[in-house]
Amino acid sequence: MEEIMHIAGHVLEHSIEDTLYLIPFLFVTYLAMEWLEHKAGDKAQNAIKRAGKAGPVIGAVLGVVPQCGFSAAASTLYAGRVITVGTLIAVLLSTSDEMIPIFLAAQVPLSTMGAILGAKVVVGIVAGLALDGVLRLLHRPEEHLRIHELCQRDHCHCNGECHACEENPELAYEAEKDEEHHHDHAGASIVKSALKHTAQVTVFIFIVTLLLNVVLETVGEDALAQILGSNSALSVVVAAIVGLIPNCAASVVIADLYVEGVLGAGAMFAGLLVSAGVGLLVLFRANRRPKQNLIIVAILLVVGIVAGAIVSAAGIVF
């Protein structure tokens, strides 16, 4: 019984820690999105369209900062269509999660860390630009901001009781120029709405993280290490799949095994490319389009496996 209580306390402590540090990222992100909806009007639409082509470059550079909070923020912004899918992919691929702390603790040379991070940024930029470019070539229509849609779904009523906006969310961004459709889109506090969104997502992340930590604590990170270490022929594929686990344990195990020499550079690179912390968790919560989310996961997996295979085939050791 004492052992069970110890495990329960350990799981609860880690789940709270994993969730708490995301709150500032989520709140700032939702605050910015609420401001875009209420204050910027359709000017925001035009500005985002102009900046869209450079999005993957900016996203990949920001994503490399050692915090998976950026991947959570990017997923939220994509759900509101503030950024393109290419920018989201760039952020998710470049996110380093727990890699840097593990490498620093193991005294991995800074040149090695820099090379890995640089390669992640390059892959993120190339994949993001390519994806956005392909969508433009296919003449896919540019999507309107969907911040208002997120508000309606979460019942925050941040635009008051506007039935026209409920039926046609894009009208929320056109109030400035349509005199016939004019009302107070900032009727409720922007801060209050952002807090409500943040609280809802935080509760969701905490519950799922708690369940994941229970499984990982029960099965153990050693089991993950054994799965990765016992499939040397398929290590790149297996590492990429393990990287999809929306928990810092994935990047910790992959980085540890690379430091210990169990994983090769290709498998390590594939796993750490795909490992985006809770970014995917937030994506499935905020972007209620399961098919779209699964396609994004598939793209991440394919890019990770291909990049890892190239590193292995080329004999790159970073």
Explain how this protein is built:
This protein is mainly alpha-helical and 318 residues long. The N and C termini lie far apart (47 Å). About 8% of the residues have low confidence. It is globular and about 50 Å long. It is built from 17 helices and no strands.
Short note summarizing the structure:
InterPro entries: ArsP_2. This protein has 318 residues and is mainly α. It is built from 17 helices and no strands.
Helix/strand-derived class? mainly alpha
| Termini separation | 47 Å
**Beta fraction of the residues?**
under 5%
Q: Regions with pLDDT < 50 over 5+ consecutive residues?
A: 159-185
Give the helices and strands as they follow along the chain: HHHHHHHHHHHHHHHHH
Task: Quote the average pLDDT.
Answer: 80
The portion of residues assigned to helices is: over 70%
Tally of structural domains: 1
Radius of gyration: 21 Å
Sum up the overall morphology in one term. Answer: globular
- Biggest sheet layout: none
| Overall strand count | 0
Please report the number of helical segments: 17
Pfam families: ArsP_2 (PF11449)
Keywords: Membrane, Transmembrane, Transmembrane helix
InterPro entries: ArsP_2
Organism: Ellagibacter isourolithinifaciens
Give descriptors for this structure.
318 residues, mainly alpha
Structural topology:
Blueprint: H1 2-20, H2 23-40, H3 42-51, H4 55-63, H5 69-79, H6 85-94, H7 99-105, H8 110-137, H9 147-153, H10 163-167, H11 190-219, H12 221-229, H13 235-243, H14 248-259, H15 265-274, H16 279-286, H17 290-314
